[in-house]
Design brief:
741 residues; alpha+beta; five-stranded antiparallel β-sheet
C-alpha cells in the first residue's frame, strides 16, 4: 500500500474519531493498493467530512466518505448522498450505457465507470471510458447539488463565443445535460495541468512566462463572452464567504483567526464598486487549466457567475503568490508570472489594475488562508501568516498611493454614511432587509442614542411600527466599526437564543436582523432592571438574591450547552492585553506603575502553568451590569443576559471569576452578599484545578478593572476621582493577591 497522505495532529477533542478518519488507511477500506485523502471539510466541534480515494488494483477505484461527529463516525459511499440523488444513477454502468447511447451512438459496447472526485452534499465527478462501435472515448460527468444548468449554459456560451471568432473552444465540449441527475457531461480534454507546468523547474523561465501570458489571454477570452443568465457575485458575497472561514481558523489558531478577521475588516473598508461585470469563472487559476501544446482548456465551471473582471484575475494572481509562499516556485518568479499574466489579459481586453485588482487579489489570498484550516491542511499552516501579510500589503494605502479610508460606524468607507439616528433612513434600512418577514411594513418612529464606545460601536434604541401587528416594538440597534464583529455578534445571539429556548426563566435578547453591509445588528429591547442597579437601589433583598442565583443558573446553562461559537479564548492574547492595560494604567496613574507591571508579569508567568480545559461557550464579559431581571418588584421572574459580542469558546472559570471580581470591586453596599449568593448557586467550575484557574482569571479581570478606572469607562466606577484612586490601588492589590503563592 502506498501512503499518500499522513494524518494531521488532533485539533478537535470533540471529534474523537477524527484522527482515525484522517489516517492513511481508515477502518472499512479493506485490503487496498492505495488510499489517499481527496477532500476534508472541518466544522469545529461539530463534524468533519473526509473523503478517501481507495484503489484496488489498476482499474478499480472507489470513494468512501467518513462523517465524524461527537456521536461517532458514519461511513458511506457517494451513491448514498441525498443531496446528490442523481449520483446513484450516474455510478451505475447499466443505466449510464443507455444514456450514453444517445451521445456516442448505439450500440455502446462497454462503459467503465470511475468516480474521480466527491464533495459530500455539493458535487461529484465521474469518468466514463466508453467503447461505442469501433471508437473509444473518455467522458466526464459533473454532478452538482445546484447549478448544473448554469454550468452547461456557461460552457456552451464560451464555446459559441470562440467559434464566432474562428477559435477553438476554451472549454471541453458539452455532450449532454442530464437535468434529472443534475449532471453535465463533457468530453475529456487532453493535456497537463498548467499549474504544474508553471512550477516545473526543468522548463526555461521564458517558456513558463509564455504560458502565464497565455493564461491571461484565456481569461480575456472568457470575459469577452456574454454573461446573461448567470447569477451575480458581488463584493458583499465575497465578504460573506470569507466570514464562513473564521470559525475553523479561530478554533485552530486564534492568533491567525484574529489576523484573518482584521484583514476581512480592511477588505470591507476598501470594498470597490463593480465597474466591469463579465462572465466570471469564479475560481480561475492555473490549477483549473489544462495545456496541450498551445491550446488551453478551462475546467470546473461550478462557481460561474456574473462578477467584476478583477475577481477572476485576482484569484489567479493570489494562487501564483501562494505557490511562491509555499516554496513551490523560486523567489521572484511569481512577480514575473504576474506581469506576464496581466500583459496577456491586456492584449485581449481592457487592462486590469488599480484598487479593484488589489482588492480581489487580497480577498482571494484571505480565502486561500482560511481554507487551509477548514481542510485541515496542517502542513501549510505555518505559511498562512506570510500569505495574510502579503494580502495586507496589497491593501496598504501607502503602497496604493491613496489615503486611508474613513471608517464610519455602520458602513464601509465606499458607502454613503448612514446616520443611525435618522428614523427615515433607518426605516429604509429595515425595509431593505430580505431576511426580515414583512419588512416593507416597517417604520422607525424614533431613534434615541443609548451608548457609544468611540471608534468601536454605537448603540441606539428604536421605536418601530409594523414589526408586531398591534403595537410599537422597541428595538436595539448596534453598529460596529469592524464588520466581522457585527456578524459574530448576530451569530452569537442566534445560537444562544436556541440554547435558552428550553429554559423559560433564562434568555438572551431576541435577534431581529443583521445588515452586514452596514455592520448593524438589531434585536428586541429587554425591559427590566440590571442586577447592579438593583443592588444599588435595594441592597440585598429577596429580588436581588434571587436574580443573582438565576444569573448563576444562566451561566451554568451556557457552560453546559453544546453551542459552538466562532472565536476561541486565547490565553496568550489575554496576557498580551494585560501588558497593554498595565502600560495604560502606568501612564495615567504613575503611582500605580509598580503594582500594574508586577501584576502583568505575574499573569504572564501564571499562564505558562495554567491547566488546559476543554473549551465551552463563555460570555467573556460577565458581570452584574449585563444581567437584566425580568419580574415583579418582589420576586425575580427570570433573567436576560446582554452584550454577547465577546462570547466565544473558553474556560468556564473565566466567567465565574469575572462576575465575582467585578462584585468584589463594586462600590455598592450589599455587593459581597450578592457575590456569595452567585457563587453558591454556580458551584465549582468544571475542569482541573479550578482554584488556580479562578485565581488567574480573577487577576486578569482585576487588571481590566484597573484599566477601566483610569479611562473612566466601566461598570464599577466610583463617583469621585479620589475614590477611583483608592479603588485602583485596591483592585491591583487584589489582583496580585490572587497570584501570590
Amino acid at each position: 500500500m502506498t501512503v499518500v497522505t499522513e494524518a494531521p495532529p488532533m485539533v478537535d477533542a470533540m471529534l474523537p474519531g477524527l484522527a482515525v478518519a484522517l489516517s492513511a488507511h481508515p477502518p472499512g477500506t479493506g485490503a487496498v493498493d492505495e488510499c489517499r485523502i481527496r477532500s476534508v471539510e472541518w466544522v469545529p466541534r461539530r463534524r468533519c467530512r473526509v473523503v478517501h480515494e481507495i484503489r484496488h488494483g489498476a482499474r478499480t477505484t472507489t470513494l468512501v466518505a467518513y462523517e465524524v461527529t461527537p456521536a461517532g463516525t458514519t461511513v458511506c459511499g457517494p451513491a448514498d448522498d441525498r443531496h446528490l440523488p442523481g449520483l446513484r444513477t450516474a455510478l451505475d454502468p447499466a443505466q449510464v450505457r443507455l444514456r450514453l447511447a444517445a451521445v456516442c451512438g448505439p450500440p455502446v459496447g462497454s462503459c467503465r465507470v470511475t468516480p474521480i472526485g466527491y464533495r459530500p452534499a455539493s458535487r461529484a465527478v465521474v469518468a466514463y471510458d466508453v467503447i461505442a462501435g469501433s471508437g473509444r472515448s473518455r467522458l466526464y460527468a459533473k454532478l452538482l447539488a445546484d447549478g448544473a444548468d448554469r454550468y452547461a449554459a456557461a460552457a456552451t456560451t464560451l464555446a459559441a463565443s470562440a467559434h464566432r471568432r474562428g477559435a477553438a473552444a476554451p472549454v471541453p465540449d458539452v455532450v449532454a445535460l442530464w437535468p434529472d441527475l443534475g449532471a453535465v457531461v463533457q468530453r475529456a480534454a487532453p493535456g497537463q495541468v498548467l499549474s504544474a507546468v508553471l512550477r516545473d523547474s526543468s522548463r526555461a523561465e521564458a517558456e513558463r512566462l509564455r504560458y502565464a501570458r497565455r493564461l491571461g489571454e484565456l481569461l480575456a477570452e472568457v470575459h469577452a463572452a456574454p454573461s446573461e443568465g448567470q447569477n451575480p457575485w458581488s463584493v458583499e458575497d465575497e465578504l460573506a464567504e470569507l466570514e464562513t472561514l473564521l470559525p475553523s481558523t479561530c478554533h485552530a489558531d486564534p492568533a491567525v483567526g484574529r489576523s484573518l478577521a482584521a484583514l476581512l475588516d480592511r477588505l470591507a473598508d476598501r470594498a470597490p464598486g463593480e465597474t466591469d461585470p463579465v462572465l466570471s469563472h469564479g475560481a480561475f487559476r492555473a490549477g483549473q487549466v489544462l495545456v496541450d501544446g498551445g491550446h488551453l482548456s478551462l475546467l470546473d465551471l461550478d462557481t460561474v457567475s456574473r462578477a467584476d473582471a478583477a475577481r477572476d484575475a485576482g484569484n489567479a494572481l493570489a494562487y501564483l503568490s501562494w505557490t511562491e509562499v509555499r516554496g513551490a516556485s523560486p523567489p521572484g518568479l511569481a512577480a514575473a508570472l504576474h506581469e506576464a499574466f496581466l500583459a496577456g489579459y491586456a492584449a485581449g481586453r481592457t487592462p486590469l489594475g488599480g484598487p479593484a485588482l488589489a482588492w480581489w487579489s487580497a480577498a482571494a489570498m484571505a480565502k486561500i488562508a482560511g481554507r487551509r484550516y477548514r481542510t485541515l491542511a496542517t502542513a501549510e499552516w505555518s505559511q498562512v501568516p506570510e500569505l495574510l501579510r502579503r494580502a495586507g500589503t496589497l491593501l496598504d494605502p501607502a503602497a496604493a498611493g491613496a489615503a486611508p479610508p474613513q471608517r464610519p460606524l455602520g458602513g464601509p468607507g465606499t458607502a454613503p454614511p448612514v446616520d443611525p439616528l435618522d428614523p427615515d433612513r433607518m426605516s429604509e434600512v429595515l425595509r431593505g432587509s430580505p431576511s426580515l418577514p414583512g419588512a416593507e411594513r416597517l417604520r422607525v418612529l424614533e431613534a434615541r442614542p443609548l451608548a457609544e464606545a468611540v471608534g468601536r460601536r454605537r448603540v441606539v434604541r428604536y421605536e418601530v411600527e409594523g414589526l408586531d401587528a398591534d403595537r410599537v416594538v422597541p428595538l436595539v440597534g448596534k453598529s460596529y466599526t469592524d464588520r466581522h464583529r457585527s456578524s459574530m455578534a448576530y451569530e452569537n445571539l442566534r445560537l444562544l437564543r436556541e440554547v435558552f429556548a428550553a429554559s423559560p426563566l433564562l434568555d438572551v435578547p431576541e435577534p431581529v436582523v443583521h445588515v452586514p453591509p452596514l455592520r448593524m445588528v438589531f434585536y428586541r429591547a429587554v425591559a427590566g432592571a440590571t442586577l447592579d442597579r438593583l443592588v444599588e437601589r435595594s441592597g440585598t433583598d429577596a429580588l436581588v438574591l434571587d436574580t443573582a442565583a438565576l444569573a448563576a443558573r444562566w451561566l451554568t446553562t451556557l457552560h453546559a450547552s453544546p453551542a459552538v461559537l466562532t472565536r476561541r479564548l486565547d490565553v496568550a492574547h489575554e496576557v498580551a492585553d494585560a501588558g497593554e492595560w498595565a502600560s495604560r494604567v502606568a501612564n495615567a496613574a504613575p503611582s500605580a506603575r509598580t503594582p500594574a507591571f508586577a501584576l502583568a508579569d505575574r499573569l504572564a508567568a501564571a499562564a505558562a502553568d495554567l491547566p488546559a480545559v476543554d473549551p465551552v461557550a463563555v460570555h467573556r464579559d460577565f458581570h452584574a451590569g449585563h444581567v437584566v431581571a425580568i419580574g415583579t418588584p418582589r420576586r425575580a421572574g427570570g433573567v436576560v443576559v446582554l452584550d454577547l459580542d465577546e462570547a466565544r469558546m473558553g474556560d468556564p472559570a473565566s466567567d465565574v471569576a469575572s462576575a465575582a471580581t467585578y462584585l468584589d470591586a463594586a462600590p455598592w453596599p450589599g455587593a459581597a452578599a450578592v457575590r456569595t449568593a452567585f457563587l453558591a448557586a454556580y458551584g465549582i467550575p468544571a475542569g482541573p484545578d479550578p482554584a488556580r484557574r479562578l485565581a488567574f482569571y480573577s487577576a486578569c479581570t482585576s487588571m481590566k478593572i484597573a484599566k477601566q478606572l483610569v479611562t473612566g469607562r466601566g461598570p464599577v466606577l466610583p463617583a469621585s476621582a479620589a475614590k477611583r484612586g483608592a479603588a485602583l490601588t485596591a483592585v491591583l492589590r487584589r489582583g496580585l493577591a490572587c497570584l501570590n503563592g
